[in-house]
Amino acid sequence: MLPPDKKPKREDIYAAQKIIADISSGIYRSPAAALKELVANAYDADASKVTITTDAPHFRSLIIEDNGIGMSIDRFRDVIKHIGGSRKRVDGETTPSGRKLIGRIGIGMMAVAQLGSRFYVSSTVKGSPTRFIAEVNLDPYHRDDIALASMGKIGEEGSVQIGAVQYVDLIPESIDAHYTVITVPDAKSGLISEMTSQVRKAVGADEPLSIDKRKIAKFEELIEIVRDSKRADIALDGYYYMLWELALLCPINYSKSGPFETHHREIQDVQLFKPPVVKSFKVFVDGVELKRPQLFPNPRAFNYSSPNPKVYVLDFDEEIARRRLRLTGYIYAQQPSVDPEELKGVQIRIRHVGIGKYDRTWLGYPFNEGQKFGQVTGEVFVEEGLEPALNIDRDSFRETDVHYQALRAYIWQTLREKVFPEFKSRQNQYRKTRQRQAQTDYQKRFNLVTLELPAPITGETEYVKTSLTQPVISTWIGVSQSGLIFQKDKWERFAEDRGLKTEEAQQRFIRVLTVLVSNEMLSDLTEDEAEPFLQALAVAVEQ
């Protein structure tokens, strides 16, 4: 603290205008992340359908339309005056239909700035006989440092001017209509470059699925191509990768089969996971309905020799720092690896919306698990809490937030105490089961070929404690209809003395002996002759 006997001097704190310009021109990692915010706004507006038109394959313009409750001109003017404020689209924590709100409209509106510096917004609310159309122009504020000087205007609440709006209201409209349409007439050159894969083409990339080659009819086609690929960004061009990433982020449902399909491979405990359902909300891009693209197992795991994939269900509900944190989810483990690469790790979803890409570090998991990291994936569905930890781009979290730390501790504990320890135990159990099955199959084959011999004996070896009344080779071995019979205590001593310590060596000894007895090759041996013979046979099979 400052010394109490000294008078402190004061300086104001300023942020460079260029920082404000950079934030207002686009804070999102990718086009899909920016579009996700507009989709989230539509979800908060109680829309049942969002339609995105991209002008593919040229991508010179974009249109984002939803059938939500819409905005009046007064509401729109309020929104653009409070970019970054805490005002929600509707009062309270839920929409009129009861949906839990995803976010705040102001920052989401600025997502359009990453797609184009000039755009139009048209909207109306049900019951209103009119609509408005507004032109939002941010271009003069993002050209160069000279233009930045115009940002010196300070508005209410210390806000800084970042653009200008012109609008026309009272345009006649049906009183039953309700919608919001955002139109970007001139997409940014960087967006066009990304969507047309100009850099990819320049280096000779040739993706299996490209908008230049064909247009998919159903999103499931894209899912199957990516499911069979090592990396989604190699399998898809810029446009289709945007669709795939947007589908990962939007509040929509899985494909009909997702996220787990047991047609090709059994999945242990899959019935314990109940996927959250998004009600009455769909997203279409250029006529194709998006679906969450997670679908496991991937084809490389269909017939891979390994334990069956397994689902570990997540369920957490506690009060942390007087705030409730409630979540569900799953961790999925499979061998040889999870494909594509982009689905390795964990993705956190808040009220159905994906917060950024999959985190391959599992929130910074502090142990080295080697290749096992590439064999696990997971999703966390946060139903309550964690929102204050979101950064401004809603793409990452502040790691100092207590909810984030509680979530991280829970995930780490699940990995450390359940998932990773079971890799070894499940592998050992699988190996033993395979060995038993192989032995059973081999014994069946052996019995079949033995039946062709003159005096066949088949079946499993029997170990008995009583002495035999009709010895065949020695005082401790005999024959029954089911196979060879050994006097237990003498057999164990013999096996130990002759080096037949492993089960495999003992089984080899018994099978060779069975063939010889079944072929009546040992019927004339005396007990004195049998002992050295058995000794030699044991040495022959002990390795």
Write a compact overview of the structure shown:
The chain has helices spanning 17-25, 31-44, 73-81, 105-109, 145-148, 189-195, 198-202, 219-227, 232-235, 238-249, 402-450, 488-497, 503-518, 527-541; strands at residues 49-53, 62-66, 118-124, 130-137, 164-172, 179-184, 282-285, 288-289, 310-320, 323-333, 345-350, 353-354, 376-384, 462-464, 477-480, 483-487. With 543 residues, it is α+β, with helices and mostly antiparallel strands.
Look at the structure and give the mean pLDDT. 86
Molecular shape:
elongated
Describe the largest sheet: 8 strands, mixed
Q: How is the CATH topology of the largest domain named?
A: Ribosomal Protein S5, domain 2
- The low-pLDDT segments are 86-92, 144-148
Strand content: 15-25%
Helix share of residues? 25-40%
Helix count, per DSSP? 14
Radius of gyration over alpha carbons?
35 Å
Query: What structural class do you assign from the helix and strand content?
Result: alpha+beta
Identify the strand order in the major beta sheet: 5-4-3-6-2-1-7-8
> What is the C-level CATH assignment of the largest domain?
Alpha Beta
Tell me the domain tally.
Answer: 3
- Tally of extended strands? 16
Instruction: Measure the end-to-end span.
Output: 79 Å
CATH architecture of the largest domain: 2-Layer Sandwich
Provide the succession of SSEs. Answer: HHEEHHEEHEEHHHHHEEEEEEEHEEEHHH
